[in-house]
Amino acid sequence: MAAAPVWSVDPRTGNPREQVAVEATAEEVDRAVRAAHAVRASLADRTVRAAFLRTAADLLAEAGEHVIEAADAETALGPARLTGELARTAAQLRAFAEVVDEGAFLDIHIDHEDATRTPPWPDLRRYKIPLGVVAVYAASNFPLAFSVPGGDTASALAAGCPVVVKAHPDHPATSELCASVLRRAAAQVGLPEDVLILLHGFEAGVELVRHPLVSAAGFTGSVRGGRALFDAAAARPAPIPFHGELGSLNPVVVTEAAAAERGEQIGAGLAGSMTMGAGQFCTKPGFVLAPAGETGDRLLKSLTEAVSDTEAGVLLDHRMRDAFLAGVRERAGLPDVEAPVTPGAGGEHTVAAGFLTVPAALLTTEGPHDALLEECFGPVTVVARYTSQDEITAVLSRLPGNLTATLQIATEEADGSAAALLAALTPLAGRVLVNGWPTGVAVAPAQQHGGPYPASTSTSTSVGATAIERWLRPVSYQTTPEALLPPELREDNPQGLPRRVDGRRA
Amino acid sequence: MAAAPVWSVDPRTGNPREQVAVEATAEEVDRAVRAAHAVRASLADRTVRAAFLRTAADLLAEAGEHVIEAADAETALGPARLTGELARTAAQLRAFAEVVDEGAFLDIHIDHEDATRTPPWPDLRRYKIPLGVVAVYAASNFPLAFSVPGGDTASALAAGCPVVVKAHPDHPATSELCASVLRRAAAQVGLPEDVLILLHGFEAGVELVRHPLVSAAGFTGSVRGGRALFDAAAARPAPIPFHGELGSLNPVVVTEAAAAERGEQIGAGLAGSMTMGAGQFCTKPGFVLAPAGETGDRLLKSLTEAVSDTEAGVLLDHRMRDAFLAGVRERAGLPDVEAPVTPGAGGEHTVAAGFLTVPAALLTTEGPHDALLEECFGPVTVVARYTSQDEITAVLSRLPGNLTATLQIATEEADGSAAALLAALTPLAGRVLVNGWPTGVAVAPAQQHGGPYPASTSTSTSVGATAIERWLRPVSYQTTPEALLPPELREDNPQGLPRRVDGRRA
């Protein structure tokens, strides 16, 4: 049987652009994982890893024009957005190089022998070591920042783990370009190119998570796809950590006072955030609790105007367009749901942004309207209009886990009177915002991009410095002679690493 | 149908002692979880939590005599060992109180707004919050330190999570006593008693891990039981973290030079470690690679003498005794396996310690001898005799994951010449020892009690300060007004907590 071809497709027309590769067979997956596993020791040196990440950033920036051209042709995300995404991706690689240099992620603990403890302490020295080969499943909606050269790859390499990436079928040409950049960067710093290997194909992805030499996986995508891979990871003879970012509604609560103070501004801000990137952000605000009555009406008027002004957009592929149209149709058809701006088909290949409204009272108990509490990928949001605080609380208590939750408050509520609402939002999400919009995820140490299931399948973050923690495990050395200890754990701290000694920061 | 009775049984005779409780029905499990969930906010104050843990330690010490009497009657572990275990358990509760006081576990990151970043940083403040109700599955072999008042409970309460414990059927009376101590301690510091609830029954345990309001689970026990619960946790509509410590062979490698230098001492040390607590430690050295030939013979002679001198012991229950006898019989019956001291039945209720030998060459490839590479709970170990370094390497590469791996080297090998062997042992375990014995697990920050599967089902530790990390998840607040922030994240750091600010330790 001939190998299945992998085509790059233009989402603006639905036409194939070029054949980029072929899908990997089970044998090829096995070969790739073994090759990555065989070179894992080459990543042991932190200095080399940091240099690799910085070189990758440099080469990616150098290749920028080609990469952006390919990515735009495959994703229709547009050069402006992709230029920003490339800069972000390069900055992310550099940020992880800094994390590697500093070494705090090694989480070094040294406890000297202490006979006075109950029970007595022997000399114990602990740090974190890389887990081994990491499988990365690239996202559709960020062909760079959450794909081949993205956060999962950067953090896994920073941790010292070789990476096998399963490309997303929506941007195989971009993936090939980026993989060659990363492999070139490896070679430039004297590393084997196989510290990063790219694979294509759905079946290859399933084989990958089952491979005995794969030690952990990172995933960004749909609930259905992510859950299937999570289940496969958990069902292995030896289960592995599966860090998946699956889906998120990203609820927003607008207080009555906030709507009164700046309803127009909130409506316009919401329109901008929910239509950004044609509504294909995992942090798109997909569900808004706004007041019923006149104050809320002003917000909706401004939202209506801004959304109506939005140009039709191209989604990442035609399957997503079909899913969007079906999802919108299902939701708009529910009783008492209205569409002040009807989301749906734009032209033959585009979609038009819109939003739905529903009385919040219909969402306080289980029923057919629960479809409105599920993510709908694309430029649509649902505004549920509440008539009381109790309705807000009741609806919030029914929401699934989220990446983000946002509170829009009035100036005077910043004095602490909004504390109860903030406390009600905190259990729902990994990131809680006040008077901001959730789209746009800073690559910062304090970032948390992950949240209760289905937002993610673990308690970790996939963005920011601490994302590196996902690919490490602690190992402790007991009564081990100095000359046999890894340098990181030696008494004289030759690498000048931050550490805790005898329970205190040193 | 009448509720199933829960009996306390004397393992020295197999006779029931008293009916302690009844098994919880599904309804009772639901009620328990809801009750624990309802009081979760009471644990929000760190000062109260620390006081609770210290009071629990005090009350446990006060109740010591009764607790030890009950535990000895149910487990036959003996007053000396149980007195030590009680002291360790109280010290562990106090150690977690210190962890709570210091607050480093909150892992606070504060990043101020910074427009020069790519993309720009908004004000972001992250710390860790408790996950919610934690299910704890108590161990058979540590009725205190890994049971109701043990490390899982202590670390979960320290994290701010209410705990529902599923008692181990081998010590229900001890469990009831300890639960009442913990609930009394809660009341003494003004907490609701339901921050700790005890349940009995196998089915109750299964219900517990499936309950939608249970947020995480900790388990210490067998591979079979732990894997079944892990699978149930992963199969939930919303999967939860399952931190299980399942099984471990705890390999030991004795170099030729070590055997030559102090073979007798190693033999005696091994005998002590493998027969401690009737071989019922999860860190029992269950597999030893020792040299063939005369040097190895000396080690074996000393091991033979010491093991022969060991008195017959009582296992925790008669089911374990049956499993031990069957396991030993299966292994001893394999071709070319010898039993210099035959492990097996002692008296009617006891077992006699022993050990088996096998040529290491029989273990370098898959075959019937692979049974020797599986844990056998009880006072038995397997000594595989190697004739070359290659045999050591080949056998090590076939071992499953372990809690510990031990290297016995000669004085001159401490100069670094044993580094390759140490490097071969590190991927196998969470704790690596040189010239020590793995039984005895210090409650220290640098401890790692956990290892590659099946040693544990996650990368975490169940002993030591960092065990608290299992019950937390990060949440980040973006552009949140000072008055709405939790005190832990306020600019002026009113609680004086350790934190990282703008990527640096502050």
UniProtKB/TrEMBL annotation, chains A, B:
Residues 479-506 are annotated as: Disordered. Residues 488-506 have a biased composition (Basic and acidic residues). The keyword Oxidoreductase applies. InterPro entries: Ald_DH/histidinol_DH (IPR016161), Ald_DH_C (IPR016163), Ald_DH_N (IPR016162), Aldehyde_DH_dom (IPR015590), Aldehyde_DH_Superfamily (IPR050740), ALDH_KGSADH (IPR044151). Residues 8-451 form the Aldehyde dehydrogenase domain. Keywords: Oxidoreductase. It comes from the Bacteria. This is Aldehyde dehydrogenase (NADP(+)). It holds the Pfam family Aldedh. It comes from Streptomyces laculatispora. The keyword Oxidoreductase applies.
